[in-house]
Amino acid sequence: MIVYLIYKVALITTILLLSLLIAMYATLVERKFAGFIQDRYGPDRAGPWGILQPVCDGVKLFFKEEYMPNTADKFLYILGPCLTMMVSLLTSAVIPWGGTISIAGNNFPLQVASSSVDILYIFAVVSMGVYGIMIGGWASNNKFALLGAVRASSQMISYELAMGLAIASVILMTGTLSLQQTVDQQTSMWNVVYQPLAFLIFFICALAETNRAPFDLPECEGELVGGYHTEYSAMKLGFYLFSEYINMFISSAIMATLFFGGYHMPFIDKLGLSPNLLTLLGTAFLFVKIFLFLLLFIWVRWTLPRFRYDQLMKLGWKVLFPLALINLIITGIVMLLK
Amino acid sequence: MNLTNRSKVVTNKQMTFVESLYLPAIFAGMWITIKHVFGKKATIKYPEKKREFSEIYRGQHVLKRDDEGRERCTACGLCALACPAEAITMIAAERQPGEENLYREEKYAKVYEINMLRCIYCGLCESACPKEAIFLTKKTVDSEYYRQAFIYGKDKLVEPVEKDKRIDVTKRQTPEVLQFKKLPNERHNI
């Protein structure tokens, strides 16, 4: 029992710290990559290649003045960023980060909470993400913040539909809601081969869900000053900015798990290594996949301009939603005939 | 009239099916951005790498000494007169007996100030000088916290007496320049 508790706490702490670390360095990678795309170097003054830059940014955010507008609803104003951060971190609980590590006869699966309804849980938590933004924007008592929040909520609700349908067709194929089993089924062939359209829809929706460009209308620094976090400063703003990167990290992990075989590495069985080493290698491979997805997120952001709001709604409701529906129907027919 | 041959006439034509998918255009855009990732960077990493200056760059001024270490400036005021920005002021003084090793001629500048914020680095002071006393150098003017600090006096302008610390101005004082300075229609040569 004690061993079990220690293992769970250790795993949760590791994943928490790891996602915070990756989110931290995602900001640096983002700025570097943006720099490269724009023929610059990006930050390179703090430490070699700027590796201390995220630390400096973090320290700066902590020591900034904590400003709160006097018309704001104090409780909700603080609740907003906390909720956003919490929701982004909660999703990491069900992602299988690797196979099983066995030490002295005990098996330790590298997944915080394994249930039979992992995907359902992800949906439940992800749709709560909109509350943090909505509450923050509402509590600020600022028209720009409110507009950003309204945009965010309508955007997230619209794209969750297509996202859900895209995943539904994967579930129809795999026949399970458990992510562990989804990964295990992909040992021979990744899901993306059978469901390329679902992956594309999921990826676009993931961009929209994480409020990344070209779907960054809730922030929209050009027209909304900063959108829902206009009135936020110091670490409360930091939480909002940070949760965006954690969201990116988690959705990359979900994409890798659902469509790209998760921690499974092709031809890994033929290496003839010990099971524990294989597990660790698999985890490393999952992180490679996640990192590639993060790069893709960043790459897309610095390539495409922002959508206009009607275009965004048109894409969500008139293109992605019917496409996902058609994909679901076709998958259903194929599964029925098989 | 076309200024370049790259101009395109804007049309409002219907998109084809492939175009309306947007994906080919998106991939083309991403291809362009990824090419820039590996391309040459425009940045010059400043403190480590400095941009090369031209040999005849016009930067901070220097007041030259002659070979014996005497100040060349005689406070004639032609530089101040030539200066379009009115950045130069000076107070002249008479050389006392026993100061022959300090000043080249009987009159010298007791105070010589250039306001580096007013100066436009045109180099007219240099071409006005009949005594080859003032030159512009490759050095850029240092940044300061206060505006007052930008008024450079003789302490900052006159070059050191030591032979090895003298400032080389041969690039700005070529034989052609010397020849030009002797032209009769230059104002100070009349």
What does this structure look like?
The complex is a heterodimer of chains A (338) and B (190). In chain A, 68% of the residues lie in helices and 2% in strands. Chain A has 338 residues and is mostly helical. Chain A has one domain. In chain A, strand 1 and strand 2 form a beta hairpin. Chain A is globular and about 60 Å long. The model of chain A has no long low-confidence stretch (mean pLDDT 84). Chain B is an alpha+beta fold and 190 residues long. Chain B has a domain of 129 residues: Alpha-Beta Plaits, CATH 3.30.70. The model of chain B has no long low-confidence stretch (mean pLDDT 86). Chains A and B meet through helix 1 of A and helix 2 of B.
Sum up the overall morphology of chain A in one term.
Answer: globular
The unreliable regions of chain B are none
Number of helices of chain B: 6
Percent range for β-strand residues of chain A:
under 5%
Task: Chart the SSEs and their pairings.
The complex is a heterodimer of chains A (338) and B (190).
Chain A: H1 2-37, H2 53-63, H3 74-90, E1 100-103, E2 106-109, H4 118-139, H5 143-174, H6 179-185, H7 191-194, H8 196-209, H9 221-224, H10 234-259, H11 275-301, H12 309-337
Helix pairs in contact in A: 1-2, 1-10, 1-11, 2-10, 3-4, 3-10, 4-5, 5-8, 5-12, 8-10, 8-12, 10-11
Chain B: H1 17-20, H2 23-37, E1 61-63, H3 78-82, E2 88-94, E3 107-115, H4 124-128, E4 134-136, E5 151-152, H5 154-157, H6 175-181
Antiparallel strand pairs in B: 1-4, 2-3, 3-5
